[in-house]
Amino acid sequence: SQQGEEDPQALSIQEGENATMNCSYKTSINNLQWYRQNSGRGLVHLILIRSNEREKHSGRLRVTLDTSKKSSSLLITASRAADTASYFCATAGGYGNKLVFGAGTILRVKS
Amino acid sequence: DTEVTQTPKHLVMGMTNKKSLKCEQHMGHRAMYWYKQKAKKPPELMFVYSYEKLSINESVPSRFSPECPNSSLLNLHLHALQPEDSALYLCASSRTAVRESNSPLHFGNGTRLTVT
Q1: Do A45 and B106 touch (CB under 8 A)?
Q2: Per-residue exposure over A7-42, b if at least 16 CB sit within 10 Å of its own CB, e if not
Q3: A39-64 residue pLDDT tens
Q4: What is the residue-wise DSSP string for B94-113?
Q5: Is B93 exposed, middle or buried (0-12, 13-18, 19+ CB in 10 A)?
Q6: DSSP state, B27?
Q7: Chain A contact for B87, CB < 8 A?
Q8: Which residue of B42, B55, B90 is in closest CB contact with A42?
């Protein structure tokens, strides 16, 4: 069964705007990861945040983690058409030796 | 481009066929995974190999049979599949198993399987 729920399910924005995606999960975790998937391709790892971290940055990406609320958010700043993809959060630790993915957010960036 | 290579990219097979999906990585990773992904859904874990031993089988039907011949290779043998098994099959690897470290997964681009 899926660990996380993400919202929104779909997001459409203009190039240059910021995009925020949220992820909630149910069990305790060791870390939470975000992945991007372009249509018909494999997933690409974006960023990993450990359970004892609250915020992490990588280029135009900013991830926050609130373990008390069991939630995380991914912010993409100054979005580009090339950011158009599906974004998944995934959690490790709550279900043992595996990574469990949330339902995903489909992001469309219009140029 | 990905460092995890999956072949073939596309596969069409009948319900009585036997075929195999192959996955290869040369990053020295010691954990390898098979995921199944249906359209517009997240990947669902099927199998995990850690140090070439099967460590997780997510109650996958026996018509799917994984094999890890060595630390760089992972196969998925398919036999007597059903049309509902049509999906994108993704292979992934990580430096060590998920429980042991905070290492991300590296995915291949998948095999698009159609069962007729």
Answers
A1: yes
A2: eeeebebeeeeebbbbbbbeeebbbbbbbbbeeebb
A3: 989 999 999 999 999 999 999 999 99
A4: ESS-TTTS----EE---EEE
A5: buried
A6: S
A7: no
A8: B90
